[in-house]
Specification:
Helix content is 49%, strand content 22%. It has eleven helices and 14 strands. The radius of gyration is 29 Å and the shape is elongated. The protein binds 3'-deoxy-guanosine-5'-triphosphate and magnesium ion (3 copies).
Length: 324
């Protein structure tokens, strides 16, 4: 196969492909039951990808789920094994479902190819494999995969930014607003308890007034890290605004939530906050209000409202305390 390039001389397709590599070298898993074809395909792929070769389809599936391949090539040449089984498993696993699959099939085996495409196999190539065609098809898939990965990562990053509080790294109020309803609905549907804690730093304005706003920010960051250290993985901790934080505790009845809240209160009050900017160790306390889901019927707004009322009680009764 010769192509006329824009310049006057002709160069081979393979040469063109080599000049137009993917942004990163591709990583390819070749699943091939025969040593002879393994070797041939390996040689052809060498210029564009790092290739792992496996002869056992089930071992290959595990390898694909563990690693981060840009492409899986399935050579339909196994004894007593339907190559589409592997393809279908690759399509159904969370860890592998975005990896493109290239099927190598015998000329004329249209039925296999149709079934493969129906399963979600990305592309196919006929035997005998033309090395240039193989490279062209692989490069297309590798580039597409790498481009999709970047896109997915950037969407993920945008989402993270939108739901994260810049100052503390906790979730922000926007996330709480969208997620609390989901957690409440889920708890209701399953007849599970759920509790919520609103906590507000006591006399925080004095910190700002005495040590400056930046020191206040440092207190907020340290406070957030103590919140993080108190909650469990399933809990949702967020900065509700200003010096107010909300913790949503799924599967947590009122008595257990009271224990968590008391632990947080002590976590804050029992150890001073070292503020580097002010070269000072501040005594900080917080007030906490609790509310738990009413199984007979409740809403996120009503739940938050009850916790807020409890918080105001805590403030009015001397601060540095938990009120349920
Ligand atoms: P109380 O015990 O009644 O809660 O008293 P307080 O002083 O904590 O309450 P108040 O609501 O009067 O003051 C909250 C202060 O929090 C006022 C505001 O300037 C400050 N604040 C809000 N957001 C931030 C922030 O992001 N950084 C800093 N440093 N201060 C903030
Ligand atoms: Mg206040
Ligand atoms: Mg306050
Ligand atoms: Mg406040």
């Amino acid at each position: 196969l010769r192509l006329r390039a824009q310049t006057t001389h002709t160069i081979g397709l393979q040469e063109l492909l080599r000049q137009d590599r993917p942004d990163e070298p591709g990583s390819v898993l070749l699943v091939d039951g025969r040593a002879s074809s393994q070797e041939r395909l390996l040689r052809a792929l060498k210029p564009i990808a790092a290739v792992s070769v496996m002869a056992e389809p089930q071992a290959a599936l595990f390898e694909a789920a563990e690693s981060d391949f840009d492409l899986v090539i399935v050579n339909a040449n196994f004894d007593d094994y339907d190559p589409l089984r592997l393809c279908s498993q690759l399509r159904s696993l969370e860890r592998t479902r975005f990896i493109p699959i290239l099927l190598v099939a015998d000329q004329g085996n249209d039925e296999l190819i149709v079934r493969a495409l129906e399963l979600g196999v990305t592309d196919y190539i006929m035997r005998p494999v033309d090395p240039n065609e193989l490279l062209a098809r692989c490069l297309t898939q590798i580039r597409r995969k790498q481009c999709n990965d970047r896109l997915r990562a950037s969407v993920q990053q945008t989402i993270e930014l939108a739901i994260t509080d810049d100052l503390t790294g906790l979730h922000n109020r926007r996330y709480l607003d969208s997620h609390l309803k989901l957690l409440v609905d889920r708890a209701m549907a399953r007849g599970r308890p759920l509790s919520i804690c609103i906590t507000d730093i006591d006399r925080f304005k004095q910190v700002n007034d005495t040590y400056g706003h930046d020191s206040g920010d440092e207190v907020l960051r340290e406070f957030a890290s103590r919140v993080r250290a108190t909650v469990r993985g399933a809990d949702l901790a967020c900065r509700f605004g200003g010096e107010e934080f909300v913790i949503v505790m799924p599967d947590t009845p009122a008595e257990m939530a009271a224990v968590v809240a008391e632990r947080l209160r002590l976590m804050v009050a029992s150890r001073g906050f070292e503020i580097a900017r002010a070269d000072a160790v501040l005594s900080v306390t917080a007030s906490l209000g609790l509310a738990s889901l009413r199984p007979e019927g409740d809403t996120p707004e009503a739940l938050l409202k009850r916790a807020d009322v409890a918080l105001y009680d805590a403030k009015n009764n001397g601060r540095n305390r938990v009120v349920a």
